[in-house]
Every structure is written in C-alpha cells, then in structure tokens.
Design a protein that fits this description.
Layout: E1 25-30, E2 33-38, E3 49-55, E4 64-76, E5 85-86, E6 89-90, E7 95-107, H1 111-134, H2 143-162, E8 167-169, E9 182-184, E10 195-196, E11 198-203, E12 207-213, E13 217-222, E14 225-228, H3 238-246, E15 251-253, E16 257-259, E17 269-270, E18 283-288, E19 293-299, H4 301-304, H5 309-327, H6 342-357, E20 364-370
Antiparallel strand pairs: 1-2, 3-20, 4-7, 5-6, 7-10, 7-11, 8-9, 10-17, 11-12, 12-18, 13-14, 13-19, 15-16, 19-20
Helix pairs in contact: 1-2, 5-6
C-alpha cells in the first residue's frame, strides 16, 4: 500500500519569502482581471526542470517510450480546489499552466508504447477540455474526482484505439475519414499480445497529479524521504488478485506471479488476449506540492527491479546537489523547462548506469524532475 502523505489532497497555500518568512504582495493581471494579493502559488508561471533517458539495456529490442510536454494544458483553478475564492483569486476565471511527463514500458513489442507516447497526452487534453466545458462555473466540484474521470476516460479511449475500437485524431490511413479529421480504426495498431504500462504526471505550480497503469512507478523525494505516489499493479497484490479471480481469471506462480502464467502485471494498455482480466483503468492521485519537495522520479521497472524507492530518491537528490555545487545555476529563466536541464539529465543518466551495474536485465527509462523553484547557488555565466 502507498503510505499516506502528511498533507491534505487539496490543501492550498501562499508562497512565502524565504528570507523574511513573510508573504509578499504582488499585482498581476490574469485574463483581463488585475489582482492585488499575496504572491499566490496559483499565479506563478513555473515550468519544472527535467531530464530523461531511455536505454535498451540488456534486452535485444527497445520497447520503452518516454515523453515530456511542457505547457501541455492550462488547468482551470476550480479543478484543484473547492473554493470559489482563493488567495483573493476568482477560481472560475484563472487557469494555471501544467506540464506532462510520461513513461511507457512496452511488452511483446514496442507498438503500444509508441502509440501511448504519441497519443495519451493529446487524448488527455481532449478529455480535460470536455470536462472543462461540462462543469464550467460549477461550485464545490470534487477536483480529485475530476482528474479520475478525465484520466480514466483518456486511458480507456487510447486502449480502445489500440484495439481498433476507437477513433484516432488526424489519422489519414483509412478511406473512411470524416469531416473532422478523425477516422475509424478498422485494424488494431498491434497484435493482441502487445501491451504497455503507463505512468504519467501532470505538474503545475501547486499540485502533482499521478496516474499509473501497470508496474512502472512514480516516487516523490520530499524532505529527504521517499514517498511512493503509485502502487505497482501486480497479480499478487491482494485487491488485484481478488479482482482477477472474481472475473474468472487465474493467477499462476510461473517465474513470479502472472495472469494465467503469462503476464507479470495486472493492468496495462493493450494485451487484448487477456481481457477482461487485464484492465486499462489507472489509479489516480492528486497531491499538493510543498516547499520540502525536492524531485520526482518516473521510471520503468528496469530501474525499480534493482533499486529501492529510498535508494533512487537519495541518489537523484544527491546528484542534483552535486551538479549544482559544481556548476552553479546556468539555466536561462526564459528557457526553463523547454529542453532537458543538465543537472536533472545528469541525475537520470547516473541512475541508469547504476541500474545496469546492479544487473538490470530490462529496458531502462527514467525521468528526473527537479521540483525546487530556486536553488541557493551562485549563478554562472
């Protein structure tokens, strides 16, 4: 089970001055409205620093995929809080920029992971836009439920498209293209034995949203401690075992616990031959960010099979600090997050090398996201 974090899922706050310990006053115009308020975390235009790596490792073929999409969607503030006014801000009038990160670990082939790489963030924008219009101006809406609906519908849509049941936006391969540029997918995009995990994160200045389907993982380093933000979907997990058995499936011990002795995970996108026992529904979690957050790691099991959550967090945290102590802060603020950050990239690469040294036999895909807004090192030019 995931250990609960020591903050409320939807708590809110004001960014305080680090030196004086007092909140400062700031004027800012948002969507034509000028706010004079505390320096609200919701008014900060902030792009996280990140680095990523994807290695074939000791596998004969590469089946993983990784995607980073800065500024992928402006989140309506009312989806993050039930308050209609917050820090002097009308939550129905303000949206906050968010950033998308995803790791997809394919099996049986790379087709589904590659399709998830190209499609999931776009499908999520479609679902978020639909809900944004459906619940616009709604007071007291459950933000956690909003994200569960949007991301679950997104994953189900992509799973249908993989299996040939849905519509792919902009697809030109079929003569049955309609006037909207969507065409029915008459054929699956991969054989029925091909599938992929999906662990994704949507990050804004105030919150982290995590969705997981399969055994890739998201772990937060907060206050030098490792906080798992996802729970692996394994067939021997008590609730997953019960669900599979209730549906008439079998979990068999064959080189580890496997569904019908074949697949070593209980949820994935694709894997049509094992439905309805293998399902594409993600588990979704929304947490508030805190000043103690240091970094977030998303990775495939090529990393987690040989390193613990605690070890990965400690290595990532230390490599970020070591890089900055040696090099200072060299990122151009105007370009923040638009390309890989050298410190985060160095941390991701170091973790991948360490996983290989520890005997990882799988593809290895890692994203390291630096959650510190400011680091106290001398700027180098």
């Amino acid at each position: 089970m995931v250990e609960e974090l020591s903050v409320d899922v939807m708590d809110v706050g004001v960014v305080c001055d680090e030196v004086k310990g007092q909140a400062s006053v700031e004027q800012m115009e948002v969507h034509g409205t000028r706010y004079t308020s505390m320096k609200s975390i919701y008014l900060k235009d902030w792009v996280p620093l990140w680095g990523c790596i994807s290695l074939c490792g000791r596998r004969p073929e590469m089946e993983d995929a990784v995607v980073v999409v800065p500024r992928f969607f402006d989140i309506p503030l009312w989806t993050l809080t039930s308050d209609c006014m917050l820090d002097g801000i009308d939550t129905n009038k303000v949206s906050v920029p968010s950033h998308f990160f995803g790791v997809y670990d394919g099996h049986g082939g790379s087709q589904v992971a590659e399709y998830c790489h190209d499609r999931i963030h776009l499908a999520l924008v479609e679902e978020l836009s639909r809900l944004k219009e459906q619940f616009k101006g709604f007071i007291g809406y459950d933000g956690q439920k909003h994200w569960e609906i949007a991301i679950t519908d997104c994953f189900l849509k992509v799973d249908d498209e993989v299996g040939g049941k849905g519509h792919r936006e902009g697809c030109l391969e079929s003569p049955s293209e309609n006037s909207l540029g969507s065409s029915a997918i008459s054929d699956p995009i991969a054989p029925e034995t091909v599938g992929s995990t999906a662990v994704v994160s949507i990050i804004c200045s105030s919150h982290i949203i995590i969705a997981n389907c399969g055994d890739s993982r998201a772990v937060l380093c907060r206050g030098k401690q490792a906080w798992p933000l996802s729970v692996d979907h394994k067939p021997n997990r008590q609730d997953e075992y019960a669900r599979i058995e209730a549906a008439g499936g079998k979990v068999i011990q064959w080189n580890g616990y496997r569904v019908f002795g074949v697949l070593a995970m209980s949820r994935s996108i694709g894997d049509r031959y094992l439905k309805p026992w293998i399902i594409p529904e993600p588990e979704v979690r929304v947490i508030s960010r805190t000043k103690d957050d240091e970094c977030l790691i998303l990775a495939s099991d090529g990393l987690w099979d040989v390193m613990s959550n605690e070890e990965v967090c400690e290595v990532a945290r230390r490599r970020l600090l070591i890089w900055h102590k040696k090099n200072g802060i060299i990122s151009d603020p105007s370009q923040r997050g638009t390309a890989a950050d050298p410190a985060s990239q160095a941390a991701a690469e170091y973790l991948s090398k360490l996983a290989l040294q520890k005997g990882s036999k799988d593809n290895i895909t890692i994203i390291v996201i630096d959650l510190k807004a400011h680091r106290k090192f001398k700027t180098k030019t």
